[in-house]
Amino acid sequence: MLIHQSYQITLKSVLKGGIILGGNIVAWTMSTVIWFLTGNEGKLAEATQHLGPLGYEVRQLSLPKGTIVEPQLDTLEEVAIAKLEQAKQHLPTGDTHIMVEDAGLFVNPLDGFPGVYSSHAFKTIGNPGLLRLLSHLQSEDPVQAASLRSASFQAVAALWDGSRVILGSGVCPGAIASTVSGEEGFGFDPIFVPLDLDEFGQPLPPGVYGTTSTHGATFGSVPQTTKQIFSHRRRALDALVAELSSQSEHE
Ligand code: IMP
Known about the structure:
Blueprint: E1 2-7, H1 12-15, E2 18-21, E3 24-30, E4 32-37, H2 41-51, E5 56-61, H3 76-88, E6 97-107, H4 118-124, H5 126-133, H6 142-148, E7 150-160, E8 165-176, E9 192-194, H7 224-230, H8 232-249
Parallel strand pairs: 4-5, 4-6
Antiparallel strand pairs: 1-3, 2-3, 6-7, 7-8, 8-9
The structure holds inosinic acid (IMP).
């Protein structure tokens, strides 16, 4: 697709064939297509929002159920790389870039369970089952409860650019609530309360109020736009974009 864009930033992917006009970089270039293996429209929208301004066109790669085997490996990185290897076989002819993303909920008092097994755990025991596993960890004091029931959402985005794998990871720390609440989002959102963030977007310790807060509400009880500010997935894409930019600047 031929694009005409005006940028304040210098990125080699955009600069190919570009000229500078009035301080802005005006580029006429073929945008690189990134095929994103996902069945989730929300993930697709997030990736488009992050990678579009860098001159990439994100397209959804939908494959028939069962085409990609969910590997049982120890870390999200390993799972993402293994899925990427499989996905590469389905890269449309002529294109070079393909991306996968993998995420999970890691509960500290359960030694990181469900972690890489999050999808299966959600389908089987679900939110009520996870709360049952933590039922012995309760406190009247909300700060102590948050420490006892600490957890994090984690995500890894993995991109094949035709010659190498580029990884970006993101973490959203928080705690498991004592009850299920809210209808927003998906998966474990109704039982996860993120830690507050400071003015730089960094998480604060339990009990410390930050400039960004859900005020103790779960991800299931806040709008998606609020979840985005804390999101592990957004942080993973940010890290991937930073890595892509630094690599393209060194080329
Ligand atoms: P996936 O790899 O992104 O499909 O995530 C695997 C599982 O982790 C999902 O089926 C959800 O149960 C859980 N999960 C991952 N990210 C989130 C999230 O942002 N909110 C709630 N649950 C999530």
